[in-house]
């Protein structure tokens, strides 16, 4: 037992038993800070108290001394619990650092470059709710065509992130931007069906835009339908395409549709982190989301997605519950 | 002086007898109140494990010397089912412990040295010692 602590404590105890001032108590509290820093356990503190008392008031009756032995016995487990708590905190810190590393690895792995196209303005934002992102966005392009994949693993965190890597390698195996959307979904579906447990569901949207014809062709595997904004009629419509979620069964017939984009028309692709935003009053409805998008329709696609994210973040009082991904294709 | 003694653990009351033996020996070696309480808590924990998981076994207490230091060695042995995953039971927060600081990690903390030998289907022997400094 550190003699120095014993000496200090005895002094504080002596002062306090004589005067009972707030100053003495304050010293006592400061003393406890030192004890904690030096890892002195509760049972040792009681033992220090007992030893100090023995010196200051040796005349106390025997049963008082015995009572301290009982108290020491009682405090042993507090001491153990405290030590366990300290190791668990250290462990947690290690986990946190590992997560941060993993998240960096993921970001590098899933990095996708937003292509620059002559007649198409592209904006993209993807913000994870936790360290790891369960949303996936990937661009494929050549001189005239740009392909866009948006996928969402049902669930968040590490399991979702691991799944995403698989989609990435599936996408890498494709032959460039011109691959038809239904072919893309078919390939990815087979990969996912083979490799993922039944409890994991992934929705995915794939679209290609041909700058030479201004036609957007798309297919969906149970994904949130994109919104199409028509500048001429100043109205939104949903781009519906039937198709089962990825990985449920090996042979799925996906529907493929096309739409022609006029000047200033745009397509908004998203994950359910956008449509399932919740404010205090309940879900934020699609109309609200449309109004927010429409209010910034004259800005660049990148400014638009960033504005929508911040606006929805604000409506949710900055509490993001799900991974959030938004992509806009806007014809210049 | 009795340098080697043991208590058979069959009923819950034997845990108290093992504690008593441990405390007497610890006092005899010259351990202070806090260390006495630590040693008996470790014995409690080991005896309780025998009682709960092996049914019966034995706690042996030996006075030891290491150089010119005196100390106490506690050996808990049983012919119970053995421990399948030692690493897991030595992990903080596993099963019974759960933030209460007990279990085998607790015993390891209370003592200076801790060894565990276990064979599935044959039993477990845990030795834990503490030196008087």
Automatic annotation (TrEMBL), chain A:
Transmembrane segments: none annotated. Pfam families: RsbU_N, SpoIIE. One of its GO terms (molecular function) is phosphatase activity. InterPro entries: Bact_Sigma-Reg (IPR052016), KaiA/RbsU_helical_domain_sf (IPR017944), PPM-type-like_dom_sf (IPR036457), PPM-type_phosphatase-like_dom (IPR001932), PSer_Pase_RsbU_N (IPR014787). It comes from the Bacteria. The keyword Hydrolase applies. Keywords: Hydrolase. Residues 117-331 form the PPM-type phosphatase domain. This is Sigma-B regulation protein RsbU (Phosphoserine phosphatase).
TrEMBL record, chain B:
Coiled coil: none annotated. InterPro entries: HATPase_C_sf, HATPase_dom. The keyword Transferase applies. Keywords: Kinase, Transferase. The keyword GTP-binding does not apply. One of its GO terms (molecular function) is kinase activity. Pfam families: HATPase_c. Residues 34-133 form the Histidine kinase/HSP90-like ATPase domain. CDD domains: HATPase_RsbT-like (cd16934). This is Serine/threonine-protein kinase RsbT. It comes from Psychrobacillus psychrotolerans.
